[in-house]
Amino acid sequence: MKKSRILIIGILLCGALFSGCAQKGNVQEETLADAAAPTAENEAGTTEDNGEAEAEKEPEDSSEDIKSQANEKESKAASLPDGVYTAEFKTDSSMFHVSEACDGKGTLTVENGEMTLHISLGSKKILNLYPGTAQEAAKEGAELLMPTEDTVTYSDGLTEEVYGFDVPVPVLEEEFDLALIGTKGKWYDHKVSVSGAELLVEDKSAEQTKDLAGKGQKNADAGSLEDGSYTVELTFEGGSGKATVLSPAALCVKEGAMSATLTWSSPNYDYMIVGGEKYLPVNTEGNSVFEVPVLEFDKPIDVVGDTVAMSKPHEVEYTITFHLDTVKPVE
Known about the structure:
Elements: H1 2-77, E1 83-91, E2 105-111, E3 114-120, E4 126-130, H2 134-137, E5 148-153, E6 159-169, E7 176-177, E8 179-182, E9 187-188, E10 191-199, H3 206-213, H4 220-223, E11 228-232, E12 234-238, E13 249-254, E14 257-263, E15 269-274, E16 277-279, E17 289-293, E18 301-307, E19 314-322, E20 328-329
Antiparallel strand pairs: 1-2, 1-10, 2-3, 3-6, 4-8, 5-6, 7-10, 8-9, 11-13, 11-20, 12-19, 13-14, 14-17, 15-16, 15-18, 18-19
């Protein structure tokens, strides 16, 4: 009996001993878990902070790319010195193009870095152009490009009256928006580009330039300008109004005398008469171009242009006024 009691007491003591060890193990595990939990939270927080830092860096790179692209476009927009050029005009539609008589080209005028291309179209079906999208053109107050009446001459000698436009050119060698409206009264979107610009008139020899300049008037106005190349705005009047001379014109000052390069809006003029002298075109393709003496500033100068657009050549009287306050040196 006594032995049985001793055995029972021994079993109870062993049970108590094992229970205490189990509780101590659980306490140690909980303590380790609590210590590990902040570490995991810190790692998660650190990862999140790093992600935000990386995200903040990305806009800076994108901004630099945008600035680079903008600078590149500006450099292309002002890549030509002031002057008059021929340039190819391309569109995204076979229904919208320059006249076949113009060989896909127009006359590009550059002044103070701003470019304008005069194009003669294939007919009079396009009534207006707009330098932008069709949606913008349809808004009230939109400044539309108005047509000029141009005469084009085909290779077989036939002539035709078509509409022409002076198109602002924001950039070379790249597409830009140019909307049009025709006789149906609906605006259409188009992409166009201007490329391959070449000087319209090649430089003449020093002897030819001197001979031409010698026919100009040597006066106080010319004496105030140093020898060199300039541009000058002009006023052109006379005739039926269907043809005109582009402004500004190139101005050359040589030994106190002046000569101007006059570019017509038509290829049909085979000679001009200025100051009693007859002058022939200095080009063989495109619109007619003449180099003539500038007799004086700020007063109408009587000139004659002979046009072959009619059934027979016909001399037409005009006046040209060169404005002295608009003279600017070509840089």
